[in-house]
Specification:
The longest helix has 56 residues. This protein has five helices and two strands; from the N terminus they run αβαααβα. The protein has one domain. It is mainly α and 187 residues long. It has a two-stranded parallel sheet.
Length: 187
């Protein structure tokens, strides 16, 4: 992505007639609110989370069946034997719950890492380019500014550049897939 941002920087630099200013603001929350950003950053993680949810449902159904079977066997079991089986089942459920929670936490941490990487990529390429074009020395989060002129808010400009980048990337993806689809199968 950083290379693609660098490619488009020269085009955008030529097209901008923005005033030079030493301080700029950006609304990070709005910048990353585009659904394409979330899909690009969390696409694979969302698939893993969906698989985890499906697996959780399957495990829950399996445990429910085991619990019902144990309940049906209760009248024929001695109290101590039933208690041992019930305790074993309870330990099994607690271990499964701990494993599932650990996997969910792992996905959350991975998502956080992916967001940080993406933000760093955007900061190191797109935001720096806008800074250089505008002659700025500081970019701050809009939420941290007490008052500012809208002329120094680069959020819309950054969103436009990211959108153009996503459009170009999806155009390349569709060209690649159409080339692949039109090629004869090799056996």
């Amino acid at each position: 992505m950083a290379l693609q941002l660098a490619f488009f920087s020269s085009v955008w630099a030529q097209e901008t007639d923005r005033p030079q200013t030493p301080i700029l603001v950006v609304d990070w929350e709005r910048l990353f609110s585009d659904p394409r950003v979330e899909q690009r950053v969390l696409g694979g993680i969302a698939e893993q989370r969906a698989e985890l949810v499906a697996e959780n449902i399957r495990i829950e159904q399996q445990l429910t069946a085991e619990e019902l079977e144990l309940a049906e066997r209760r009248p024929e079991l001695e109290t101590t034997e039933f208690q041992e089986l019930a305790d074993a089942f309870d330990r099994k459920v607690q271990q499964i719950r701990a494993d599932r929670d650990a996997k969910e936490l792992e996905l959350q941490q991975l998502a956080g890492l992916e967001w940080r990487k993406f933000r760093q990529d955007v900061e190191r390429s797109l935001i720096i380019e806008i800074m250089q074009e505008r002659g700025a020395v500081l970019v701050m989060d809009r939420n941290q500014a007490i008052m500012y002129s809208t002329s120094i808010d680069i959020t819309d400009e950054a969103i436009g550049r990211m959108s153009a980048l996503f459009d170009a990337a999806s155009g390349q993806d569709s060209q690649t897939s159409s080339v692949t689809e039109s090629e004869p199968a090799v056996e």
